[in-house]
Design brief:
Chain A: It holds the Pfam family AAA_11. Chain A: It comes from Streptomyces sparsogenes DSM 40356. Chain A: One of its GO terms (molecular function) is 5'-3' DNA helicase activity. The complex is a heterotrimer of chains A (about 475), B (about 575) and C (about 450). Chain A is globular and about 65 Å long. With about 475 residues, chain A is of the alpha/beta class. Chain A is about 30% helix and about 20% strand. Chain A starts with about 30 loop residues before the first helix and ends with a strand. Chain A contains 15 helices and 19 strands. Chain B has two domains: about 375 residues, no CATH class; about 120 residues, no CATH class. In chain B, helix 3 crosses helix 4 and helix 8 packs antiparallel against helix 9. In chain C, the strands form two sheets. In chain C, strands 1, 4, 5, 6, 7 and 8 form a six-stranded mixed beta sheet that branches. Chain C has a two-stranded antiparallel sheet with strand order 2-3. In chain C, strand 4 and strand 5 form a beta hairpin. The chains are: A alpha/beta (about 475), B alpha+beta (about 575), C alpha/beta (about 450). At the A-C interface, helix 15 of A face helix 8, strand 8, helix 9 and helix 14 of C.
């Protein structure tokens, strides 16, 4: 009854693509990514299997793949349903589909709540929105959330489905919608936050269909023969970040950066004033990573000094006239507030950072928790380390996916603000976890991933006393 | 642990006595609960040693297994247990109310109202601690697949007649107790810790004697001292004065008292079996009875303090007034009991060993709904629980400063008054967040957050803030965070504008009393008051391919293979 | 599954802490008491090192080989550890039964669980080498030899109660796994036999976790023998338990890579005792100075207490089930008013406040009620506590009935009350302060209108 977890499997999946070329060989990221995409589309459109699973590390082009697969399926005369997990994801996807293929008839199935979808969709003539699935009958593509699809009954099953963010979908949510389609492409990032339940589900631990497990683990436990693919190239993460994120969070399914070391550059028009925030910004601009380390101290979650330091880093980032050069454009692009995000572990921390930013007159910077930053992309991120100032590490703070999300949202640089002493905190963390028979051990575990990230950050440390 | 609970624990340290964390009783207590205090043999999975069981505080039934390795004695124990428990369980089966329920007509496929029976009350089983609940499950599992001679004349070691049925009931009760807020089977330690905080840790609270010592210490003794004594004080012979609440026994008891007594019992049995003439047999038999009586006395001595503690705990809990919505939850327990009664009556087979995919998903969904309902109802029933939700930013209470009438811009304009509430609370609000409050007549009124008020009054909606959060799984920890000053923008000292969106009747003018007036005290929550369950799941026979297809039916019901050395 | 090993932050030389110098060995002997033999550490004790790695007191006492149980008794705070003879007998009976047929059943169970398509062991082909030898060193050497021979033989072999050793702070700890199976391919599997049941394929996760940590210690000790024998130790151990309610064995493989990584790290960290020892005053010792009868403690208890107090502890309630000294540490923690005595989780939101007294003083520091919050102090922990205290007091005042156990303290507490003169403490009866609003009865809408 062992439920294999794709992220832990030893060998690459059958039909999968290798993560990188052998040492010494030149690696052509575009070609590798194209090969992977072709193989996925081939299995999806022509393969004998009812399901195809695609693991997509951060920024590997998951949305591009979903849009392309949807268009090709539609073009092949196979109407499909798309299942995403949140309304924001559904709206994004519909918007992208409509922009890339204005001729494609797309249905947006939504709830009957007030303001059920993003009004931007109303600008697309090819998009029809309705709370009733019957209104959308005959459209090539119908997109909705898993929660909404679960209420659809008594319809002819779709021949095809795409399930997006399948690793964040719970097994029981898949159970509720799987009757609506005959075959499906499952796409997701195994490294992000796992689904969970607010009540105990231990009695089903180890069962292949544990309702609180991820949809993909149930799917593969029952259908081990399904082809599993992997997108091998992150187009988001710079060359400075991909190896760390790949090693720390995807040890058995490595990926590469699509860009080289010189391809992305971050410059400032205003020179450093020698302060901690400026020095850490210079370090991050240079190396892609920066750790602004405050003196060790036990603090509550909304540590005013750490929150203030985060806000100050953002303020300086804007004041110093940052400009980013990347493969997207030869000319430097000014680093504006909308290209910056602050990531925290808790909502109250995000609220405190927002207040601190407002106090410094900063507007337009995204500030959110790891949960809500999943799937998003920025040029520079400033992260309040989940363990900063804590008296102890908890399962919540050690969760691999949380750190992975926070450390993999950026295209250029990531600055982490943290109090000293986290390494010791990790060392003193008791390890007395219960073990459930039949549950596959998940790797990497949060403790090791945290150590790996911390060790790397230590090389880019700027100590500062506010 | 929430800050407010942590504070209660620290108050308890200061006062050297437990402090309340609830002002009403949040769990249903039967007028006639069945208290069950079991003991088990160390190292054996399902070898009961004894039990005190009954509904009469002064007259518990003592059941003892003098030699737990003896299958016949174990079966005798279980048969006796069934004799006590099953009549109690059955005594609630025939007093029924009629309820109307919608069911799908198999011919027309339409939902039609039908009259169904709902038992007017349900049996309630109380055990001392969480380990006791586990033991009830284990007993249930060990018994429900047993075969009686009547069911299967060929079965090698037939179980006494009513034992499999007892196994099914205990299984049902054990499973029901996993539903948040359910009260069919409860542990006294859980009941007490729900209502009081002690000056010790949650782990130490699992000791019923110590827990009670904090809540209700003996005269003149500080709770911490009393708890320490309950935990560890031993007599001259090295025996605990307050034995553990079980089902595990204290090793010192096993080694110093029980093992020698069992050895005497075994020797006496051997002697009886080997007796050569009637006179000697009689003498040996007398020894055997003496040895057995000694074991009964020993085991009773270990359980009696726990039995008394459970009843003492009941006294304390009954002194609390019952929460207003407790009866509503108990009604669901009555449905649960009635449903199982019907399945037993219909001759359905015992519950399978392992849930199939659909059943597991259904149970999980039902429990998540029950959890959400429980959290909402406890907060609405109890200002102290609501205080915790307010601290967590999930509710706010305050005084109405101003009410501005407004109407929706629809064809038929509906009342959408804007209510300004002055509050010191710091709820986690964003534009358009739904809000709920209880109206004086008990109905729920809905509203939405319309913005922070300017110091001189409401000026309509504030600028739209963040996009709606993910509809999918949210961070469990995020739900329970203390609010911070940072949540409220500078200068907006806690004056919030709520747009009422419901609960005002059908007309253009709101019904009398449905709109609060300046000076009224109101409390809005960000959580729903009656959260509903999830979607319907497919029938097990329609389990999709992603979940392994329909389950195989036959295997699940086979009895456990029996061997010479079985324990139960 | 020939999976890849878990990645360890410090793989090289892990599990073999650098041999401490003679000076340290001498110092540890002094700490233990010159006439006292080191208390042997078994696998369970080694596994328990990970239960509270932040505790310097435990690290030092274990590293020095101090008998913590005897120490706790001498301090007057005996631990409530003990095993029932019923459990002991049951464990022995079950283990004997599992091994009764010369390992055939065990190797068959192991092979079934592997599901690797290899041929099943032929009945009667599993060898059971004789491991008898004199003394632990002798048995360890005999085990190593038997393992090498069995590996070279290329068949199934069962080593019944082998002996392996690990270097703990300069002294060898001898460990005795229930069994080790040598596979035909030359790999080894640690067998852990437990008497708790597997019912319908699942078992108590806490017990399985403890078994996995214990088995990881054996696997680690075997690793060194395997390296010399050119063999490898599998990172999945076989946990054998009674099936359902029978005495029949059933088994599951348990992946112990995480436990291995943790144990390696903890053993490496035992070298830290050198640093801890260096900070202690000269002449400090935990010697009980036993009388000639070997039982009577002659050391004054105050002296012992002072010696123990000289090393910092990191007490948490979880220690009560993991450390013999926990009852003593709890008493000290409570006497000092440490918030940890209420649970590790309590500290999360308290920032720099570490005692109950400080928390209560902060919470009640300034008159406040829920509707008129006190001015922010700039310390979010204090602000949040004040809000919590104000909300709690308001709710208790509004309680529909007298709340039991709300009476005043019967005696001065261990932490003196911070005397909140301006604030009517929450302990003041419901009538002491008028509520902020008319309070409805316990009927619907009690909390909320």
């Amino acid at each position: 009854m062992t439920a294999p977890h794709p992220a832990t499997g030893g060998a690459p999946a059958p039909g999968g693509t290798p993560g990188g070329a052998a040492d010494g060989e030149a690696f052509d990221p575009a070609a590798a990514a194209a090969r992977a995409t072709e193989a996925i589309l081939h299995d999806t459109l022509h393969g004998p299997h009812r399901g195809v699973v695609v693991d997509s590390p951060p920024g590997a082009g998951k949305s591009t793949l979903v849009v392309r697969a949807a268009r090709e399926l539609a073009a092949a005369g196979r109407p499909l349903m798309v299942v995403a997990q949140t309304n924001a994801q559904v709206d994004d996807l519909v918007d992208r589909l409509a922009r890339e293929d204005p001729e494609l008839p797309v249905g947006r199935l939504h709830s009957s709540e007030p303001h059920p979808y993003d009004p931007v969709l109303d600008q697309h003539p090819s998009v029809r929105a309705s709370a009733k699935v019957a209104d959308l009958a005959g459209l090539d593509v119908v997109v909705s959330t898993a929660a909404k699809w679960a209420h659809i009954k008594g319809v002819e099953p779709w021949r095809h489905a795409i399930v997006d963010e399948a690793y964040q979908m719970r097994s029981d949510a898949l159970l509720a919608v799987a009757g609506l389609f005959e075959r499906a492409l499952f796409v997701g990032d195994p490294g992000q936050l796992d689904p969970f339940s607010v009540v105990g589900a231990d009695q089903w631990a180890g069962l292949s269909y544990d309702p609180s497990a991820s949809a993909v683990s149930t799917l593969l436990a029952h259908n081990p023969q399904l082809p599993q693919h992997r997108l091998p190239v992150s187009w988001r993460l710079p060359a400075s970040a991909a190896p760390l994120v790949s090693d720390a969070f995807y040890p058995y399914t490595p990926f590469r950066s699509g860009t080289g070391h010189g391809d992305r550059r971050l410059r400032f028009g205003v020179p450093s004033d020698g302060s901690g925030p400026d020095r850490v910004l210079d370090e991050a601009a240079e190396s892609g990573w920066g750790l602004l380390e405050l003196p060790a101290r036990r603090t509550p979650r909304t540590d005013p000094e750490a929150v203030g330091a985060v806000a100050l880093v953002v303020r300086r980032l804007l004041d110093r006239g940052g400009a980013a050069v990347s493969e997207r454009s030869a000319d430097p692009v000014p680093l504006t507030a909308d290209r910056i995000a602050v990531g925290t572990a808790h909502r109250d921390q995000a609220a405190a950072v927002r207040a601190a930013l407002a106090g410094l007159g900063v507007v337009g910077v995204t500030v959110d928790t790891a949960n809500r930053l999943q799937g998003r992309e920025f040029d520079v991120t400033v992260v309040l380390h989940p363990l900063s100032g804590r008296p102890d590490a908890t399962e919540f703070h050690l969760e691999t996916g949380r750190l992975c999300v926070l450390a993999s949202r950026h295209r250029h640089a990531c600055v982490v603000v943290c109090r000293a002493g986290v390494a010791e905190l990790l060392d003193e963390h008791p390890s007395t976890e219960p073990v459930q028979l039949g549950v596959t051990v998940k790797f990497p575990d949060g403790w090791e991933a945290n150590h790996a990230v911390l060790a790397h950050l230590a090389e880019h440390r700027v100590s500062w006393r506010p | 642990m929430s800050l407010i609970t942590a504070l209660a624990r620290m108050e308890a340290v200061r006062d050297r006595r437990a402090r309340p964390v609830a002002t009403v009783r949040h769990r249903h207590l039967s007028d006639r609960p069945l208290v069950f205090v079991p003991l088990t043999t160390a190292g054996e999975a399902g070898a009961p040693l004894g039990a005190l069981v009954g509904t009469e505080r002064d007259a518990p039934r003592l059941l003892v297994v003098a030699q737990p390795r003896d299958r016949d004695l174990r079966f005798a124990f279980l048969a006796e247990l069934a004799e006590v428990v099953l009549p109690y369980v059955d005594s609630y089966a025939d007093d029924v109310d009629l309820e109307e329920r919608k069911e799908t007509d198999p011919e027309t496929g339409k939902k039609v109202p039908v009259q169904v029976e709902l038992c007017a009350d349900a049996p309630q089983l109380l055990v001392p601690s969480g380990a006791g609940v586990e033991f009830v499950r284990l007993l249930g599992r060990s018994m429900r697949f047993r075969r009686t001679a009547e069911q299967d004349p060929e079965t090698p070691f037939p179980a006494p007649a009513r034992v499999p049925l007892l196994g099914r009931w205990l299984t049902h009760y054990g499973e029901r107790s996993r539903v948040p807020g359910s009260c069919l089977l409860q542990a006294m330690t859980d009941l007490l810790t729900r209502h009081w905080a002690t000056g010790q840790s949650h782990l130490e609270d699992q000791h019923l004697g110590a827990l009670l010592a904090w809540i209700d210490p003996p005269d003149g003794m500080p709770g911490d001292e009393a708890a320490l004594r309950a935990e560890s004080e031993r007599d001259a012979g090295g025996q605990l004065l307050c034995p553990p609440a079980g089902p595990a026994t204290d090793p010192a008891f096993d080694n110093k008292l029980l093992a020698p007594a069992m050895a005497r019992y075994d020797a006496a049995r051997m002697a009886v079996a080997g007796a050569e003439d009637g006179a000697r047999a009689e003498r040996h038999l007398a020894e055997l009875h003496r040895a057995e009586a000694e074991i009964r006395e020993l085991i009773a001595s270990q359980m009696r303090p726990t039995w008394d503690a459970v009843w003492r705990g009941l006294d304390l809990l009954r002194a609390l007034p019952e929460g207003a919505r407790v009866a509503e939850r108990w009604k669901r327990d009555r449905w649960s009991y009635t449903g199982h009664r019907d399945r037993v009556r219909a001759g359905e087979p015992p519950q399978p060993r392992v849930d199939d995919a659909v059943t597991a998903a259904q149970k999980l969904a039902a429990r998540e709904t029950a959890q959400a309902q429980l959290e909402a109802q406890e907060a609405l029933d109890d200002p102290l629980v609501m205080a915790g939700r307010r601290l967590a930013g999930e509710a706010f209470a305050g005084e109405v400063a101003e009410v501005v009438m407004a109407w929706s811009e629809t064809k038929v304009p509906r009342p959408r008054p804007l209510v300004t509430v002055r509050t010191g609370d710091r709820p986690h609000l964003a534009e358009g967040v739904k809000l709920y409050r209880v109206l004086p007549d008990g109905r729920t009124q809905t509203g939405e957050f319309a913005g922070y008020a300017e110091p001189d009054g409401p000026d309509g909606p504030a600028d739209p803030s963040e996009p709606d959060g993910p509809a999918g799984p949210a961070d469990p920890d995020e739900g329970a965070e203390p609010a911070r000053p940072g949540d409220v923008p500078e200068g907006a000292e806690g004056a919030l504008v709520v747009r009422l969106t419901g609960g005002m009747g059908r007309g253009k003018t709101p019904e009398q009393g449905s709109v609060p007036e300046p000076g009224d005290r109101v409390c809005w929550t960000l959580f729903e008051h009656a959260p509903r369950g999830g979607p319907e799941l497919p029938d097990p026979e329609a389990t999709p391919w992603t979940h392994g297809g329909p389950p195989e039916a036959a295997v699940a019901q086979a009895p456990d293979p029996v061997t010479e050395e079985d324990l139960l | 599954m020939a999976g890849r090993p878990a990645r360890q932050p410090e793989a090289a030389g892990a599990g073999r802490p650098p041999r401490p110098g003679k000076a340290l060995r001498q110092r540890l002997a002094e700490l233990r008491g010159p006439a006292t033999t080191p208390h042997p550490l078994d696998a369970r004790a080694l596994a328990a090192l990970a239960a509270n790695p932040g505790c310097r007191r435990r690290a030092l006492l274990d590293g020095a080989g101090v008998d913590k149980l005897a120490l706790a008794q001498a301090l007057g705070s005996p631990a409530a550890f003990g095993q029932s003879q019923f459990a002991h007998q049951r464990g022995n009976t079950f283990e004997a039964r599992v091994k009764a047929d010369g390992g055939q059943a065990l190797t068959r169970l192991l092979h079934e669980r592997l599901r690797d398509g290899s041929p099943a062991p032929e009945p009667g082909t599993t060898t059971v080498p004789d491991l008898t030898a004199a003394g632990p060193q002798g048995r360890t050497a005999r085990t190593a030899l038997a393992l090498r021979e069995a590996t070279a033989a290329g068949g199934w072999a069962l080593l019944d109660h082998p002996m392996v050793s690990l270097d703990i702070a300069g002294s060898p700890a001898f460990l005795e796994p229930d069994a080790v199976v040598v596979h035909p391919d030359g790999s080894w599997t640690v067998i852990e036999i437990k008497s708790f049941p597997m019912v319908d394929g699942s078992a108590d996760p806490a017990k399985v976790g403890a078994a996995a940590r214990q088995a990881a210690v054996y696997a680690l000790a075997l690793d060194r023998v395997a390296a010399l024998a050119g063999a490898r130790v599998r990172h999945e151990v076989l946990l054998v338990c009674p099936k359902d309610f029978s005495n029949l064995p059933t088994a599951e493989l348990v992946d112990v890579r995480k436990q291995l990584a943790v144990t390696r790290r903890q053993l490496t960290r035992l070298t830290r005792i050198e640093e801890i020892a260096a900070t202690l005053p000269d002449g400090l010792t935990f010697d009980l100075r036993l009388a000639d009868d070997g039982r009577t403690v002659t050391r004054p208890v105050e002296e012992l207490r002072a010696a123990v107090d000289a090393v910092d502890a990191a007490y948490a309630p979880e220690c009560l089930s993991a450390c013999e000294l926990a009852v003593h540490c709890r008493a000290r923690c409570r006497a000092a008013g440490g918030v940890e005595s209420l649970g590790r989780g309590v500290r999360g939101e308290l920032g720099g406040l570490t005692t109950v007294e400080a928390v209560l003083a902060a919470a009640l520091g300034e008159a406040a009620d829920a509707d008129r919050p006190a001015p922010p102090t700039g310390d979010p922990a204090v602000d949040a506590l004040r809000r919590a205290a104000a909300l709690r007091a308001e709710a208790l005042r509004a309680a529909p009935a007298a709340v039991p156990a709300a009476g005043p303290a019967p005696a001065p507490g261990p932490a003196p009350e911070p005397a909140p003169a301006a604030v009517p403490g929450p302990a003041a009866g419901p009538a002491a302060v008028p509520g902020p609003a008319a309070v409805p009865g316990p009927a619907q809408g009690a909390a909320c209108r």
